[in-house]
Amino acid sequence: MARIRKGVTKPAPQFLEGDPSTGYLPGRKWPVVRYGLISLLASAILVFAIEWIVRGDFYGTVGFFLQPFKPGWTTIIVFALVLVGLDAVLGRSHQSLMIVAPLTLVLAFVGHQKSHYLGDPLYPTDFLYSRQIMSLMPLLVRERPMTALAIAIGIVGGLSLLVYGWRQWRRRVPILSRKGRLARLTLTVPLLAFFVSIMDYATFSWTRDRLQIIPIMWDQKENYASNGFALAFALNVPMAHVSAPAGYSDKAIAAIDRPGVTASVPAEKPDIIIVMSESFWDPTKLPGVTITPDPIPNVRALRSGYMFSPEFGGMTANIEFEALTGFSNAFLPAGSIPYQQYVRSPTPSLATFLKSEGYRARAIHPGTNWFWNRGAVYADFGFNDFRSEETLPPMQKRGPLASDAAMTDEIIREADASEDPVFFFAVSLQNHGPYEPYRYYNPTHKVQAPISTWARESLLSYTEGSADADRGLERLIEWARKRERPTVIAFFGDHLPPLGPVYVETGFMKDNVAPRKEPADQMLEHHQTPLIIWSNRTGPAEDMGAVSPAFLPYHILTTAGITHPYYTGFLGALRERYRVVDRNLLLTPAGEATPDWARQKKIDPAINDFRLLQYDMMFGKRRAAPDFFPETVDKAVAHTS
Where is the Sulfatase N-terminal domain (predicted)? Predict the structure, then answer.
């Protein structure tokens, strides 16, 4: 027998005799069961390690897994399926661990560091914005140099160990047979595909609900704490990439018509106050419902039109995004939340422009500053400051939340105290859902409707909150009427309230929430909230119809006598063609509807220009900035007229 020369690599073994389908040694019982149990155990250890690293709390991690209905157990099964499927691709049992474990553990470590230094969890979109990752390094090196050195050594050592282990594994572990690989793929691919299909948080999934995977997209910290790092990260993946629109180029941006409008403000700059009233709507629109007295008489008397909300029952931040920037959610991935995924750097907004004109730009919300990531977003929008629960004086409550009356008092107090013109963007809190029965001990209205007691009392709770919002508007108008300084007030609801069974029992809708797609007349009914734009010089704007929140900057600035290349120029020209731009609907001023416009081969050039401009300013090269957003590149103050 010829000797094997020293230094010559032994050939990698092929199929094992007696058990070619699994790759396990012959003579051992239950190889398939053993393989499955080992994969499941490896998955459990890995998922536990990931959560421990991210949370930095061993006992907290144990507590997460001790609750049987928490998503941690679902994560373990999903990881096991990934390991088994990847084994089939790589061709050797358990070799997938050498890819999955290092990758996920590194992500967990980066996530922990980001949370420690920046306060936010790790999002897939962070990898599109390198500053979110690189900003950690100077902090880490400066504050913990030994940790930084250990990381560098760990990276080098880990990569070396991984390469060595990979080579050894492929040398010593036999490859799987075609039958074994096909069996693994047959098991894992359909199950993983099904799991991916239920992870669209923008739509309800019965299976996801039973698995206790509850997307908490308005509070990402709680989202990661409740669902675990892996699932929360996965829930954010669909929003990680925004592709450039077809034809996007410097030439395409240069070809967009410049409206010939410059930035100008009146010699006497008017104060501008925008109140986005939480879930404000007209509950008398419910069929068969009688409410006495009228809960919203002031809004009814002053109404300019309607705000067409791109959302239903929630996702307040998406309405804010449109109203402050003049951009549209229609051009972003379905289900995305720009406040969470895309606003990572200075972004042009009404605050940016008005601050450049000498305004004091302030945001007010009597809730916490981390909700919807508002603190960071408002800073990127150019607000001078953001007054939230943490920095506002103690505010009187009405029911369980800060009252609209208290917020109105704060707006008036701050406006009266400011010598500079002010731009206020206020988001109320009092009428936030859920609307539990008997929320207020002293209701001032009566609700009559052929519905269950619970639904009727829930509707009464909502009605009381709406009436308080209406009274807040009345007080704001009365105050502004007495002012010498020009004052413009905009007031609107962000979306219809999440009344759930009330809609079904009254026959307003078939389900608790409105579908994403429905005929235009039903979309208007289910998505429009009252809108008031009023000036103490000219009174209310009239006959606006239903308009997307992206057009609110145009109407507000026009009422204030202010012009701007984008907000009144470009949006003004677009408003002559469309008053609603939604991902599922275009609506002309005459009421002509174009449903599913994005799926058509030919798109109106005006809409395409809108999309190109938005992409350029949010994700592209910002070639349009000098012509459409000069305040972002030139600090010179515009002329007054």
Answer: 270-562
Q: Over 70: is that where the pLDDT of 137 sits?
A: no
458 SS3 class: helix
Instruction: Please name every residue paired with 371 in a beta bridge, in sequence order, or none if there are none.
Output: none
Taking residues 462-471, what's their average pLDDT?
96
Helix or strand (DSSP H, E) at 488: strand 487-493
Within 296-451, residue ranges assigned H as helices are 297-302, 316-325, 338-341, 350-356, 374-381, 404-417
Determine the average pLDDT of the residues in 102-109: 91
Q: Which residues are CB-contacts of 539 (< 8 A; sequence separation ≥ 6)?
A: none
In order, the DSSP letters of 492-540 are EESS----THHHHHHTS-SSSS--SS--HHHHHHHHEEEEEEEETTTEE
Tokens found for residue 402: 């800060």
* Beta-ladder partners of 426: 275, 364
Distances (CA, A) of 119 to 114, 221, 392: 7, 9, 21
For residue 98, give every residue at least 6 positions away whose Cβ sits within 8 Å of its Cβ, in sequence order, or none.
Answer: 162, 165, 166, 169
How many angstroms separate the CA atoms of 124 and 8, rounded?
45
Distance CA 296, CA 293 (A): 9
Question: Which tens digit of pLDDT belongs to each residue from 468-481?
Answer: 999 999 999 999 99
Write down all domains in the chain, each with its CATH number in brackets. Answer: 20-124+175-239 (no CATH), 271-632 (3.40.720.10)
Peptide bond into 434 cis (omega under 30): yes
Q: How many C-beta neighbours within 10 Å does residue 457 have?
A: 17
- The span from the CA of 124 to the CA of 122, in Å, is 7
**Paired tokens of 170:** 């492929």
* pLDDT per position as a tens digit, 402-433: 999 999 999 999 999 999 999 999 999 999 98
Residue 389 CA to chain centroid, in angstroms? 21
CA-based nearest residue to 80, from 237, 188, 176, 226: 188
Long-range contacts, stretch 136-139, CB < 8 angstroms, 24+ apart: 136/110
27: left (phi > 0), else alpha (psi -120 to 50), else beta?
left
Query: Whose CA is closest to 202, among 122, 313, 279?
Result: 313
Q: Can you tell me the mean pLDDT for 391-408?
A: 92
The answer on pLDDT for 203 being more than 60 is: yes
Q: Is the pLDDT of residue 311 over 60?
A: yes
In terms of DSSP H, where are the helices of 561-601? 571-575
Q: Are 464 and 445 in contact (CB under 8 A)?
A: yes
Beta strands in 391-442, from DSSP E residues, in sequence order: 397-398, 401-402, 422-427
Residues counted in the chain: 641
pLDDT digits 0-9 by tens, 337-365: 898 888 988 999 999 999 999 999 999 99
Higher per-residue pLDDT: 181 or 428? 428
Range of weakest confidence among 153-162, 291-300, 605-614: 153-162
SS (H, E, C) 188-256: HHHHHHHHHHCCCCCCCCHHHHHCCCCCCCCCHHHHHHHHCHHHHHHHHHHHCCCCCCCCCCHHHHHHC
* Cβ atoms of residues 402 and 395 within 8 Å: yes
DSSP-derived secondary structure letter, 271: E
